[in-house]
Write a structure and sequence with these properties.
This protein has 389 residues and is of the alpha/beta class. It is built from 16 helices and 12 strands. The protein has helices at residues 15-32, 50-68, 70-95, 100-110, 121-128, 161-170, 198-205, 226-236, 250-257, 276-282, 292-300, 313-326, 335-347, 353-360, 369-382, 385-388, and strands at residues 5-9, 37-41, 115-118, 135-140, 155-158, 180-182, 212-217, 240-245, 266-267, 285-288, 305-307, 329-331. The strands form 2 sheets. The chain has a 6-stranded parallel beta sheet, sandwiched between helices. A 6-stranded parallel beta sheet has the order 9-8-7-10-11-12, sandwiched between helices. Helix 1 links the parallel strand 1 (5-9) and strand 2 (37-41). Helix 2 (50-68) crosses helix 4. The chain is globular and about 65 Å long. The mean pLDDT is 93.
Amino acid sequence: MKKPRVVFPYTEAGFGHMMPMDAIADKFEELYGDRVECVRSKFFTETDDKKLAVLGDRLRDDVIKTAKSPLYGRIQTFSMDFFQTRLSMWGTMNFLKMGSKRRGIEHMEELKPDMVVSTHFATNYFAEHCKNKPLTVVYFPDIVVNPMYRYPCDLLLVTAPTGYERALRTHKRRFSEDNLARVPFIIRKEAFAVTADKTELRRKLGFDENKFTVVLAEGGNGIGNMERICEIILKRNLPVTLVPVCGKNKALYEKFSRFKPNGETDFRPAGLVENMFELLAAADVFCGKSGANMCAEVCYSGLPHIITRYASNIERHNGEYYIGNVGNALKIFSPEKVADKIEEFIACPALLLPYREAALARRADYGAEKCARLIFGLLCGKFPELARN
């Protein structure tokens, strides 16, 4: 029997789409690679098609615009809610880059998939419009399923119990227990190998093992309130190890690298890092926006999360979930008040304990294995002989 072909198309519209894809593909290939053909596709760039490449760039740029301007993000999510799924998707796929819709469908057909597993609405759209439609699976990490991810697919995987229940309750014509599943949050596999011993990690990282440690990040693009918060903490000369992770924001990293603080603050700016989970595990508190993956990784690391901004209504829903349902987060948008809260935690570290306990209570609800098994189960429905192997 010819192996069914499962395609994992990558969309470089932000780390929140790419990292889960890596984790799902890794686990699926580990469990079923002997029975299926796994294809990892750099969908928008592998063909040298200019229209597809431009579409991929514009999807990425849209994420950056949202990070730079919360107003843009709110307008965008309002528009999606107003026009709803069909019109929002039609407008995006037809006009974001003219001509890319046809090429996207054609390229998806060229890949000859029996199944397409997506972490972005665009690749799912192309798969749904193939002449020989493959099975389609979408992983969705945010809390509330937004209109673009309510577009048809054979199986939508969501992470939050509240999001799962809300989707079933409010979109009964779209979702049922047959095409919607609740799964653990997917984080990078590196997380599971990191020690929980802060002293050991601080020694390894060259930090003072006894100094209160604050890690800041604003997603992969490093855009947000981090710069102002760092400036205030440095001005106040707080006795902390301060680690701003700038991601792809080279200008901010270079600016931070020119700072030469001489006081109590040990300032350790970082760019695009490979050891984010070590930094998180070494920290006492995290400051940053409420992207889905960032919230989950901070929570897995057992950290209190000071949410410093919402870039969109999507992130507002994420933040409210971790504040009200999980309990490891608090919202402080004023950089001055963020610094005040850090001072408060330094003076009384016991105040961190309820947030830590709330985060660690969710520790078991992570990993890609359930996703991989559900995906394979759907594939077995079309190829029952797989289940007998």
